[in-house]
Design a protein that fits this description.
Number of strands: 22
Number of helices: 20
Length: 533
Amino acid sequence: MQTCEPKETVGTDGSRDRARVVVLGAGPAGMAAALRLAEAGLRALVLDQARAPGGQIYRQLDQPQLDAAVMGKDYHRGRALVGAFLDAARRGAIDYRPGTRVWWIEALDDALNDAHRLGVRGHDGISRELYAERLIIATGAMERGWPFPGWQLPGVMQAGAAQILMKQGALLTEGPPVLAGNGPLLYLLAWQYLNAGCPPRMILDTAPNLGLARSLRHPLRAWRARGYLAKGARMLATLRRAGVPIVRGVQSLAAEGDQRLTGVRYRRRGDSDEHRLKTDWLLTHMGVVPEPQLPRGLGIEHHWQEAQQAFVPDRRDDLSVRPGVWLAGDGGGIGGAMNAEREGRLTALSVLNDLMSELKDTPLDDQMADPQDTTANVKGAAAPRADADNRRAIARESARAIARESAALRRRRRQDLSGRRLLDALFTPPADWVERQPGETLICRCEGVSRAQLKEALEAGPAGPNQLKAFTRCGMGPCQGRLCGTNVSRLMARERGRDMDEVGYYRIRPPLTSITLGELALAPSDHLTTQSQ
């Protein structure tokens, strides 16, 4: 399909790569979307910063380092999806580009039919521009930033990072770790460590409420979540049989040590005294949230979702977030791997519907235009015309069949997410955790900004998170506010007596990911003025 295969960029002559459909991310949602488009005969361009497909959930699954006995069947279940994706890429049905980072993105004006331009850094280290007519964002989730005294010490690691080491290199901590926080991943990692022969020393659970009684208040949700609940019950039973202590109701946590972690200090709900535990490794987790940078960099509106304690992008019923842009998977709200696959297919079907509508409204002579037409290479030119190959491919897809398939996927998605809401209730993080931390606790590890410094800056009356960033440099470090952004909004909301939507979030500007000064100097310059306004 000529119009879906990007044209090579030619140095600095003003030409641009272009593609009719671009998928950002090769996790469960991105792979499922690209495969469904390939079934319809549309060759999507898939950009992913990892070197292999799978995302965080199915990381390294093309060459797994540990078997299902250690990692679990859910991880290895993804091998069929990863295998199908790689097969489609090998035979040219998908244009897959691993090791690629999108470091800036902008929406073009209406004259370009709601198209977008992206700054793309390839695995060769060269930055190019890409013109994308339609975008499927499938960039997934990240672990929630969860500050406490000493969380910056060597030896303290997030559970997701520890799991990445297992998946990519079969690496474990040197000695049994202490696990702290709450959420399904915390217990999954504990179970995996146990299976790998390194049982955790202790699990410190910070969940405010966790128990069967709360589950039974919503019998329909509990029934729909029975698979998740049964899986969790089996993990807990296995951990208990192995003698792994689980301490519930933990209200405060601190990591101790000078140059590195030497111990953990914690207090349980109702206890007057703190408990101490010597350890060299502390693995923490407080749930996952949608990855914010790319959708916010594109200007997508977000709202605060109390159930997931996170800012979530505003999506329509067809999972679109603006004309020509769809958001699939955990980046639009945490739903898990299976839901991400369903949403990937749903967005692909919505793209097909959109293309069918375009072809219906396109004159026949334009449909039969030269597929090598590159009139969209220059900003302000007309949108690329639909070619004969696109017309024939989409004609194979019946609008009625697409509607039936979409309805079935939506029905299953609603049922599954209803069960997931029970998990949200069971594993809700303490809403006042950040406010309860001592003043010396670092909120922004990148720039070394403490809670006390933020409180002092808040007294100066900043208008919002962006001005607070200017006052303190909080959010200006390498992570660009990913770990501190929501916590800064929380502190400001509590200080001002406002809700999270009123306070908002950092304004995201490029670069969205790391880029060298040399790459920036070689990048086309016309977008820099636009993005800085």
